[in-house]
């Protein structure tokens, strides 16, 4: 089964799950990049059926499957703003990356149902792509998502940090959608012996739910060693586009 949804369904609380989920959890074959599965609340089945009629041949929408098997986080700890603030300052992401901690948690899903959880250690070997990213918010707002590594080449000597792993702007609603990508995701790696690196996700609510005309070079997945990915500043980026304080975030640690 191949699923591809284009465009935006504003009135529905859609849940985006991408091809690695199809493969690793549902055992389905998804073809190519960006084919995604979107789950809808059960109450909107009729809307989905209607929408299905507009799909090009070869594309289908499978609803029940996704609704039943929506990924769940094993660790159900509730992260209050105070806990998040504590984690961000304990790991010195405040002040190394941002001046203010996010208030809310963003949920990021990697293959094999792995989630960052405010400072857990993760093994980068499976981080071929990101399956899903979501945070509290409304469909009326527009968001910018930044994935940055401040510790490049190492936390002790971050002479080329931050490294921008993934930057997406103009995300309509609190779920990652592919089309506003400014910097394409690439699986990060670190040289041996450079210790633990912080991998930080920050989500900003764009002012007034507006679209931003980003004045950034598009960095595709082939630009791993492009100098423009290095010496990135989340702080300067947020200031340039008047993004204010981060609305949501999360982070993990990796060797
Ligand atoms: C994303 O796609 C939607 C629907 O096609 C479009 O309205 C929106 O402008 C696009 N956003 C960006 C940043 O290209
Ligand atoms: C990461 O995972 C790979 C594959 O499962 C494994 O070979 C490797 O030893 C792991 N590395 C660490 C540091 O756990
Ligand atoms: C979104 O905007 C519409 C139209 O402006 C409004 O009716 C609706 O209540 C808003 N929804 C939320 C969740 O803010
Ligand atoms: C980042 O900036 C530092 C200081 O200006 C410079 O020495 C370093 O080469 C830069 N890193 C990259 C990868 O361009
Ligand atoms: C890095 O470490 C891994 C596992 O510890 C080892 O297999 C690999 O050869 C090392 N690479 C280099 C360049 O030292
Ligand atoms: C944080 O999440 C709550 C809902 O859980 C939401 O009401 C609030 O607006 C969010 N804050 C920000 C800054 O997005």
From TrEMBL:
Pfam families named in the record: PBP
Domain of life: Eukaryota
Residues in coiled coil: none
InterPro entries linked to this entry: PEBP (IPR008914), PEBP-like_sf (IPR036610), PEBP_euk (IPR035810)
Keywords in alphabetical order: Signal
Residues spanning the signal sequence: 1-27
Record protein name field: Phosphatidylethanolamine-binding protein
């Amino acid at each position: 089964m191949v699923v591809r949804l284009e465009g935006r369904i504003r009135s529905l609380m859609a849940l985006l799950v991408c091809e690695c989920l199809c493969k690793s959890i549902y055992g389905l074959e998804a073809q190519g990049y960006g084919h995604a599965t979107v789950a809808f609340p059960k109450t909107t089945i009729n809307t989905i059926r209607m929408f299905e009629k507009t799909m090009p041949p070869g594309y289908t929408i499978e609803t029940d499957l996704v609704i039943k098997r929506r990924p769940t986080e094993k660790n159900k700890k509730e992260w209050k703003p105070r806990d998040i603030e504590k984690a961000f300052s304990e790991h010195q992401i405040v002040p190394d990356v941002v001046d203010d901690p996010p208030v809310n948690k963003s949920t990021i899903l990697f293959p094999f149902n792995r989630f960052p959880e405010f400072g857990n250690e993760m093994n980068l070997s499976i981080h071929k792509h990101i399956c899903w990213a979501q945070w509290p918010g409304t469909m009326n707002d527009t968001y910018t998502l930044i994935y940055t590594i401040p510790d490049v080449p190492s936390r002790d000597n971050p002479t080329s940090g931050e490294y921008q792993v993934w930057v997406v702007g103009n995300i309509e609603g609190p779920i990652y959608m592919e089309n506003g990508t400014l910097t394409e995701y690439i699986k990060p790696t670190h040289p041996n012996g450079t210790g633990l690196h912080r991998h930080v996700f920050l989500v900003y609510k764009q002012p007034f739910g507006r679209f931003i005309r980003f004045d950034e070079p598009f960095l595709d997945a082939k630009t791993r060693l492009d100098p423009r990915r290095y010496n990135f500043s989340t702080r300067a980026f947020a200031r340039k586009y008047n993004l204010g304080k981060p609305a949501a975030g999360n982070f993990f640690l990796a060797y």
